[in-house]
Amino acid sequence: MTGFTEEQVRELRRKLDRRNVQTREADGRTLDYIEGWFAVAEANAIFGFDGWDRVMTHFERVIERNRPDTTTCAYMARIRIRVRANGAIIIREGSGWGEATAKAPTEAHERALKSAETDATKRALATFGNRFGLGLYDKEQNGVTRPKVSPFRGFTAFDPKGNAIAENLSPEGFCKAIRQLLRQADGPAEVEQVWTRNEPEVARLRSKYPELKSERGDHYGDILARLASDRIGPFYRTSGVKLGLPAPLRLKPSRIAPGGRIDKSRLAIGTEPRARDKEHLKLVAQRPCLICARTPSHAHHLTFAQRRGLSIKVSDEFTVPLCAIHHDECHRSGNERSWWARYSLDPMQVAAAMWRESQTVPQAPTEPLEVSPMRGTQANGIELNPRDHQPNGSEGAESSIPPVQGAHPNGEA
Questions:
Q1: Among 204, 178, 202, 174, which residue's Cα sits nearest to residue 191?
Q2: What residue segments make up the domains of the chain, in order of their start?
Q3: How many CA atoms are closer than 13 Å to the CA of 340, on its beta-carbon side?
Q4: What is the per-residue DSSP string for 307-354?
Q5: Which partner for 83 in 52, 71, 157, 247 could form a disulfide, CB atoms 3.0-4.6 Å apart?
Q6: What predicted TM-score, i.e. pTM, was given to this entire model?
Q7: How does DSSP classify residue 235?
């Protein structure tokens, strides 16, 4: 170490502080590294601000890929470090690699070259010892200080009676145990007891591990709280609001439909009622297609009949029969109202008649329904046949929903 002062030698022999080591994932492995700014700062502190310099002796573009919206390029660079120590010049060199992708070609080239320069600088400085990350190449990393490990205090899961069934659990193991207890609980009362016993530990989990979240960004404590809330139910909860649990839902008796279900149309912010009737859907599917009279048909829900909801279909009362071909064509049209207007049909009238038929007691045959064109359109020669059309082609009981007569098999009038 000729040329360096005793103080510089002492600094170079010190271990690298673990707090200055960063980690990243690459090719399925975890790599430790120091950042470029830290390496330069250490060189300034040990060698002096005017005691060293660096020169890029070579750089080369090895990859360049241009696309309509992005540019990707990569560079190789070689850096020479010169340290002035008591009249002596100590020279070290290192090579580095850098890659970048950006919308602007100039930005991609600049970032890639800077990355290659920084990587080469760190490799050249690493030859001076552990303070510049040399110890990170050692598997045991003896040249890096060991972090102070505080004793781990795990989590404890309690059963409904308050007995500890598992202690010193990891955060993931604790969440798994509580989820299992909530699912195995017999009834809302026991679910609430499980949650009450384990609530302090869930609160500690939130405060100590705020980063413990799912892929959707939900904290594990919130996930457990929602599970407990769903299992307890809004009509049973007696102990009030707990961490993450919504307040009990209090409804007037008039808002509760027969069978214990909530009539959402009577809430303060009501929603349109959506009836569900499998028998009605079967009845609709037995009728021929409104466009081409093919059978069998599908029960198509008229998307414009009610306000759209996330993954929620309109009420079953707004369904009409369509064959597989026209059912797919309708969904692909983009604007269903315009699609029906093209065939000069008013499907809402047909759906209403079918709903009345399925919801009333069968009576004597009535006059066949006349399907009128939608406003602003013409019939284009399409007429409705009042005769009943059975799926198997045989004549049967009369129906109040007539098929379309005279339509071309491919759906063109």
A1: 178
A2: 6-137, 155-232, 278-405
A3: 23
A4: --BTTBPPPTTSEEEE-HHHHHHHHHSS-HHHHHHHTT--HHHHHHHH
A5: 52
A6: 0.39
A7: T
State residue 340's pLDDT score. 92
Distance of CA 363 to the CA centre of its chain: 52
Alpha-carbon torsion (235, 239, 242, 247), positive or negative: positive
CA distance 379 to 373: 6
The amino acid at 198: N
348 Cβ neighbours under 8 A, 6+ residues apart:
302, 305, 318
Tell me, what DSSP letter sits at residue 286?
A: T
Furthest-apart CA atoms within the chain: distance in Å: 116
C-alpha 47: how far from its chain's center? 50
pLDDT tens column, 83-113: 998 888 999 999 999 999 999 999 999 999 9
**pLDDT for res 255:** 45
Is 374 in contact with 345 (CB distance < 8 Å)? yes
Q: Report the SS3 class of residue 23.
A: strand
Give the number of other Cβ atoms within 10 Å of residue 87's Cβ: 6
pLDDT in tens, 178-198: 999 988 888 888 888 899 899
> What is the three-class DSSP state of 395?
coil
Q: CA neighbours within 13 Å on the CB side: how many for 170?
A: 3
The one-letter amino acid code at 171 reads P
Listed in sequence order, the residues at least 6 apart from 10 whose beta carbon sits closer than 8 Å to its beta carbon are none
Cα separation, 278 vs 155, in Å, equals 49
What's the gap between Cα 345 and its chain centre?
Answer: 40
| Burial readout 247-270 (b: 16 or more C-beta within 10 A, e: otherwise) | ebeeeeeebeeeeeeeeeeeeeee
Q: Which residues of 176-215 are buried (b: 16+ CB within 10 A; e: fewer)?
A: ebbeebbeebeebebbbbbbebbbebbebbbeebeeeeee
Q: Give CA–CA dist 127/238, Å, rounded.
A: 68
Q: Which helix (H) or strand (E) element contains residue 220?
A: helix 220-232
What is 6-137's CATH topology?
Enolase-like; domain 1 (3.30.390)
User: CA-to-CA distance for 121 and 396, rounded, in angstroms?
Assistant: 89
Contacts of 113 (CB under 8 A, 6+ apart): 59, 75, 77, 98
What amino acid is encoded at 223 in this protein? I
